[in-house]
Each structure stands twice: as C-alpha cells, then as structure tokens.
Design brief:
heterodimer, A: mainly alpha, Formate dehydrogenase/DMSO reductase fold, 17 helices, 0% strand, disordered C terminus, B: alpha+beta, two-stranded antiparallel sheet, 10 helices, 35% helix, elongated, binds iron/sulfur cluster
Chain lengths: 411, 299
Amino acid sequence: MNHNETMEKPFRSWFMEKLLNGMTWPEYLRSLVTPFNIFAALVLIVGIPVIVQRFVYGLAAVTHASYEYPWGLILGWGLFGGVPLSATGFVMATAYYIFGFKRYRPLVRLGVLTGFMGYFFAVVYLLVDLGRPWRIYYPMIVGFGTASVLFLVAWHVATYLTVQFLEFSPAILEWLRARRVFKWATFITIAMTIAGIILSTLHQSALGALFLLAPGKLHPLWYSSYIPHFFLASSIYAALVQVIVVSYLCARFLRHAADSYFLESLDGLTLGLAKGAVVGMYVYFVLKWVGVAHDDNWHLLTTPYGKWFLVEVLGFVLAPALLMTLGLKTGSLPIVRFSAFYAVVGILLNRINVSIIAFNWHLPDHLHHIIPPLKEIMIVITITTIHILIFRWITTRMPVIRQEPLEEYQH
Amino acid sequence: MKGRLSRRDFLKTTALMGGSLLAGGVTEALGYKEEFPVWTKSYGVLVDLTKCVGCRSCERACNEVNKLPPPDRPFDDASVFERERRPTAKAYTVVNRYETEGGPVYRKIQCNHCNEPACFSACPIHAYTKTPEGAVLYDPDKCFGCRYCMIACPFYVPAYDYWSALEPKIVKCIFCYPRISRGQLPACVEACPVGTLTFGRRPDLIKLARKRIIENPGKYIDHIYGEHEVGGTSWIYISGVPFEELGFPTNLPKRPLIEQVKGFLGAVPVVFTVWPALFGMCYAAVKHRSETKEKEDKK
Ligand code: SF4
Ligand code: SF4
C-alpha cells in the first residue's frame, strides 16, 4: 500500500507537469476547448474515416485511380510541397553552426523541429499513397535500384529523418529532465549538420530530378535539365520564408510557450532572415529565365501554359521578392511577414505545377483529370491538421521557442 | 542482372548511398552501358499498321493466354472504338481506331519492351528485369507501389490495380515470356489473322521493315517507330500515316531516358566528397575567426 502511494505520487506529478502542462485533468480538458481545437476535431472526425477507407478499400476508394496520373495531390502537397518547406532544419543549422550566425540561436531549434516534422509527415503522406506501405523499407533491403532517383530520395529521406531526430533530441532530453545532455549529442552536432547539408542538397534536387525521366510528359517550360538546380535553389529560400512564417505563428498563437529571449529577438531576426530570402528569390528568379533561355523556349511563353508559367514566375516569385524588398526598405514587419507567406504559397504552386498541373499537359481532358476528388483533398486536410496538432503539442511542452522547460520561469 | 543482387550491384549501391566513390568512377557506378548487352540478339515484333483490320483477335488471345479478368465489353463489340483506350489493370493490350484522311487506322497498344526501359530505371527496388529475350518483366513481390514506373514510361503502359487494398500491383504486357522462352509465338502474334504482327529477332525485323518501306513506294511513311525512340524498343511500327495521328508520342528523345538523369546521378558522388571538405573548411574558418576575436576582446 504504502509502497504504491509513494510510487504513484511522483508519477502523477510527472504526468501533470510533462503532459498536461502543469494542470489537472479537468483544467487541462477545459483549456482544450478553443475554436481552433473544435475545428480540428471536426476535421479529424470527418477525415480519419476517409483514411481508414483508403486502407480498407484500396487507393481507388479515395483517389482518381488514374493510370496517366499516378501521383496526385497527396504526393504533390505532402512530398513535393512539404519537403522544400522543411529545409528549415538544414538551413538554420548551417547558418548557425557552420557559418557562425550566432544571433539566430532562438530560431535554430524551431527550424530543426519544423524540418523534422515536415520530413516525418512527408513520410506519412507517402505511406498513405504507397500501394503497399508496409514494404516501405524494401529499397533498403530487398532490391537496389541504383540508377533510380527515387532510390536516392528514399535513402536520403530516411537517413536525414534520423539525423534530424538526433539534432532535435537535446530538446527532448531537456524536457525529460535528463539534465546532462549527452556530450556526444553536442559533439557530433557539426558532423550531423554537414551530413544534413549533403543529404538535403541531394534529395531536394533529387525531387526535381525525378521528373528528368519524363521528358515527354512534363511541359517543356517546367522540364529543364536545370530542374534539380531549381528545386535546390528554391528550397533554400523556402526554408527562410518558412521560418519567418512559422516563428510568427508561434509568437502569435503559442505565445505562452515562448520566452522573452525568443519574443524580443524575433523582429530583428525576421528582418535578417528576410534579407537572405530576398537574395535567394532573386537568384532563383534569374535561374528560371536561364532555364528558358537554355532550352530556347521563348516562343512557348505566348501559349496558355506559357502564360501560366509567367503567373508562377512573375506572380509568385518576383512579386513576393519585390514586396519583401519593399518591406525591408521601409522596415515594415507586416509587409515582410506577408511576403514571406506569399513566397511559401509560391513554392507550393511551383511544386504542384511540376508534379500535377504541367504534367501530362498534352493529354485530352487534362484540366479535368487534375482536379482531385473530395476524399483525397480531405485526406490532405486531415493529415495537415494532425501535423499542426503534434507540432503544437511538442512546442508547448519541449524547449523549442524557449531556452528551458516552461515551469522554470513560473517558479 | 536477372533479379539477383550481384556484388557489383551492391558496390554501386554503397557508392550512391555512402558516396565513397570518386568522380572517376561515376560512369562505372551508373553502369547502364553494360546493363543491356542483349538487345542486338533480342526478339521483337514488327507491327505493320497498314494491315490491321481492328478485329481485336489479339486482345482476346492475350486475355485467354494470360488468364486476365473478363473484359467489360465483349471482344467483338465495335463500340469500344468510340473512345481512345489504353492498357489497364485488366488488359495487357488494347486496339484503338484513329480516323485519318485515308480512312480509319487501327493500332494495337501494349508494352513496347524498350531496349533500355524507363520503368526499369525508375524503380527504386529493381522490380523490373530486361531479359535477354527482350521481354521487360515485373516482379510484384518486390514492388511497394510508388508508381514511379508509371510516371517514367513514355508510352503510358504500366497500369495499377488501385482497387486492391492488400495486393495492388503493376499490370503490363509480359511479351508472353513463358511462351517465347519455349519457342512459341506470343499469343497475339499467333492470333492475328491478317499478318499485322511479325515476331523475330529485332535486327531482322528492322531490315524487314526497311525493305517493306522501300519496296512499296508511297505506301509507308519513311519512319520505323521504335528503331531509335528512347534508345529503341523491341516492338517497332511502320505506318501509312504520320505517327502523331495515331497517338504515338513524337516528342521523345532518341537516347534512352536514363541518359537524361545521368548528369544528376553523376553529381551525387561529387557532392558527397566535396561538400564535407567545403563546409568543414567554412566551419573551421568561422570558428578560428571568432576565437581570435574573443582573444582580442579579452586583451
Ligand atoms: S514501354 Fe514502358 S513499360 Fe514497356 S518497357 Fe518501355 S518503359 Fe517499360
Ligand atoms: S510501382 Fe513498383 S515497380 Fe513501379 S517503380 Fe514503384 S516499386 Fe518499382
């Protein structure tokens, strides 16, 4: 009896402190009733059965099951869109550890967590989309398609996910009060950061290189021998704008989980990141035109797809870049943040263009085929919601946007 | 190359993964040149599109021999020609009708059994094999269903069994591999009543095709489709009307599609060797600078 009681007490307080953020159950449950949570709950109630349906009845139950369009929104959004926006970990870690931009310290962990979660969920989307997801490890064991770019992507994403987990592990250890963060963790940080650079450079560009095998199918304005460079170059500025967006959302909606170090430095760091992002966007913009000139595709610009290309490159690369320049010149944070968000949308648009809209452009009824069925959209919304919920769960518990576990500041 | 993992395969794999490879070994690592030593002797089929009458006997024979599910509409139902069709999860081959100036032209579609198949290069698990006989085969026991081979195939051939939750697989023509390795004709070739399909060694078929074009001036356009497209295919075609009018993709490079990726794959080992040195140096330089600065600050 006695023994039990003494065991129970520390566990209960550990549980309350770690998982309920220091509240009792009733308090905790009451704190959960917020508009966002109600919305999220509704999404999950509708969406999870759709995901179950996919696994019980096969992909045909939720997608177009098209032979011409084997990849749809699930991969277009989750893999092709998600991975560049998850370059945050590698870009922030490189800036901080390798190039010595020490003042970005408050954002490094946030960058690493955003990246890790992004990759993790890219794999989740992949698991939903693969015909036989339980064989996901096959490229590692069963057969080696060494000339396959997808083989490279599989290996690199798997390795990089591990690297990012290790990079984030100090935060978990601190949260669990493993006071002495293992020496090796800090010791191998540099090695891991460099590994992260190698892996990221290669798989970011590899996602573009996947399409090199389909010259007859991808519209020539998007198909270019430079496509790996496009994907890599855009992922770098994508990381910077994504950190601006995510850090702002954290400061706005998860303010209670942030410390003053994070909140006070945020505005200055945002401007710093924006300076980098603007350069990246102009470089990418020029690169895109180098691609058009290299393949001498100028005459295609007047076709309908040419106009759509102009919308992407002028409207969603140049325009946010100019806007961000304006924001920097006037020192206006709202403009900078808005243009960062705008640029994120531009990245998504580009990846969806390559993987869906400009793919098979010449097939009859193309525009009809690429509109995803409602259930596929629902799956994407559901997984995105789960992504946000888990991100919030971690950020409000572990030292991500604060230096130490929260309660240290309360007492 | 036949499915089993050789030591060389393994070395190549390690090279791509670990990047211990130096730039000099890149072509060796890609190795696609030696991977397809067989196509000069491999079999093929010459399809003479001027002969096809659209009877769909080949479709029926294929369905029976390969024990495929019954068709949605019977094989003698001509209404299927109203829509352009493609091979599906239930049919390895389909015949389409195309209206041209000189009247309708029928075209049989199936896997072309490319010399250096894009589906083969795409697959991350090596689920595809190109046999010495020319057939491109797929092994469902290896496939995890990414469907990249469907993205890569320039002829829109592989179909996927999306309706199966537990055992979905790629479905495509197997060139009647069991039959041709026994010395029999592919079922479709045997079934064709008008001699549209000629089975033989690919080099002989190319000679035959050229002979027909030369000996019948005005009957054929001067092009053997599949002689060079994407590095050449085992199934080749001659026609009286331009191939684009018959739904053939005509925007394909002459070289095997894997060569489009060569440059990228070649850069992989370079990144693995150069990046650590480059960024390691950056790190060292920055660290050195900040340490000297600290020392100076202390003074
Ligand atoms: S036609 Fe398509 S499926 Fe057939 S071998 Fe060529 S690439 Fe592969
Ligand atoms: S779907 Fe299967 S056969 Fe096709 S590339 Fe993916 S793993 Fe290979």
